[in-house]
Amino acid sequence: MHAKKLLPVASLLAALWAAPTLATAAISDDVVRIGVLTDLSGAYSGNVGPGSVLASELAVEEFGGKVLGKPIELLTADHLNKADVGAAKAREWLDQEKVDVITELGNSAVALSVMNIAEEKQRMTMVTGAGATRITSEECKATNVHWVYDTYALAKVGTMPLVESGTKTWYFITADYSFGHSLENDGSRFIKEAGGKVLGSSRYAFPGTDFASFLLSAQSSGAQGVALASAGADLQNEIKQANEFGLTATQKIVAMLMSITDVHGVGLQAAQNMNFAETFYWDLDDESRKFSRKFFEKFGKMPTALQAGQYSAVLNYLRAVEKSGSDNVTDVIETLQNMPIHDAFARNAKLRKDGKLLHDLYLVSVKSPEESKEPWDYYKIVKTVPGEQGFMPLSESKCPLLKN
Fold it and tell me: What DSSP character marks residue 367?
């Protein structure tokens, strides 16, 4: 009689003891491996690169260095902004190093290539540094999330208000690869939808250094706005040369993707009054300042939006692994889609079925040297745009996952 009463208790105790074991057993190879595949030496290294590696380290440190009792390992590599180099490293990591998630991928051609490989291997990708809209539209993957920005949102938030306020005619100078094309295509669309007109465009081989002929073409077009569909070192050189050729005296120079390090690189004198879309600013609130000052202490610079977004992606990946009890890609993404996402970068954000993280965007204006009160005090927030209004609505998406 007593034995029968004890059996359920014994079973319950056995189940309780077994539960942690089952959870930790779901961590493949008893290690959670995160591969940060980024531009460590090229044109985008200032926006991502070493800063994105540090951001990843800060996320792991904040999480505690372990998940479900298992160690977290970070691997890093330079993709050199070449899709074949990125693909080769991704295969090596997934096949030999047993990496669970490859992240950053700050080049759209590299990101699209690595996403395909990860899908084939049933491993996860988290794109934080690349912005082609195709990543969560035509090329969306059930194994991928797109965390920070895309060209649709940047173009919409960065151009429509300017057209509506009087900048009606435009000329594009565009990096000749998928990211630049996507920026130009999306920008042209929103310029036209707002009642503006695109007078022409020039495309240059990426990366570039001498933009004289392209800037002179833009100048001779008579366009009121000159849109620079590029980023990183290329963008900084374009802005400096636009000032040298006198374009800023008669035309509005608009960056389709600009970061705080770009502003720092060209200086407030050259960048003042430029308007563009951003996804993060270090001085936004207490949460952003706390993370950014910790980053600054180790890096000597304030984080870019892409670096802050990388911190957010890694931190929430680890939260999802812990919450789901598994590093299986299906489990992790399903958990991310159903859990609250809030941190120094993302405010009450939501991960959609197409892999897009919906979060606030900001239209910013660069301060003049006189307006800046301290180092890195560079932005005025002109407008906050909720993610539901800034990113492509699902009704426009070509993502095949939405058909299921």
Answer: P
Let me know whether 156 and 252 are in one domain: yes
With a cut of 80, say whether residue 51 has pLDDT above it: yes
Residue 300 DSSP one-character state: S
pLDDT tens for 185-211 read 999 999 999 999 999 999 999 889 899
Ramachandran angles phi, psi of 302, nearest 5°: -75, 150
Once rounded to an integer, what is the mean pLDDT over residues 282-307? 97
Provide the token pair at 272. Answer: 């003042």
Place of tokens 């490859």: 102
Nearest to 308 by CA among 281, 342, 286: 281
Inter-residue contact 203 to 176 (CB < 8 Å): yes
β-sheet bridge partners, residue 125: 102, 144
The predicted model scores a pTM of 0.87
3-state secondary structure of 363: strand
Identify whether the C-beta of residue 239 lies closer than 8 Å to the C-beta of residue 336. Answer: no
CATH code of the domain covering residue 112: 3.40.50.2300
